[in-house]
């Protein structure tokens, strides 16, 4: 489990090629025309193009997460069960879970897209 966590952390926070940031920037460049720098979540909730972009983003990151976990000989289900059981006594597991949840949150996605638009106008 710890090796899988390290791989996921390296993916999310690394500076090399094929990191989460690079993946997000490539994705954001493709979909930036759907978002604005000052966009709020409430402006996107009922628009199908934002929902579809979010779903594609989730699929990209979930696929990479699956790949990283499975490369350590675990199924995704096993990995999450281990995280859950260890989170009771391990602060690192709790923080790790929060990071995973924040990446999958729709409002965080909209904020990240808005930030990308602001930085790349």
From TrEMBL:
Q: Which Pfam families does the annotation name?
A: ARL2_Bind_BART
InterPro entries in the cross-refs:
BART_dom, BART_sf, CFAP36
Main location, first listed in the record: other
Write out the entry's keywords from A to Z: Cell projection, Cilium, Coiled coil, Cytoplasm
Q: Where is the BART domain?
A: 21-119
Report which superkingdom the organism of origin falls in. Eukaryota
One cellular component term from this protein's GO annotations in UniProt? ciliary base
Concerning its family, UniProt says: Belongs to the CFAP36 family.
Protein name per the record: Cilia- and flagella-associated protein 36
């Amino acid at each position: 489990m710890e090796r899988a966590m390290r791989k996921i952390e390296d993916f999310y926070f690394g500076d090399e090629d094929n990191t989460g940031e690079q993946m997000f920037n490539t994705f954001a460049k493709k979909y930036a025309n759907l978002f604005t720098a000052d966009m709020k979540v409430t402006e996107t909730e009922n628009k199908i193009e934002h929902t579809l972009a979010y779903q594609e983003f989730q699929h990209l990151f979930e696929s990479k997460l699956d790949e990283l976990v499975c490369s350590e000989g675990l199924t995704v289900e096993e990995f999450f069960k281990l995280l859950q059981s260890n989170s009771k006594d391990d602060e690192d597991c709790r923080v790790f879970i929060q990071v995973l949840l924040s990446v999958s949150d729709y409002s965080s996605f909209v904020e990240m897209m808005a930030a990308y638009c602001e930085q790349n106008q």
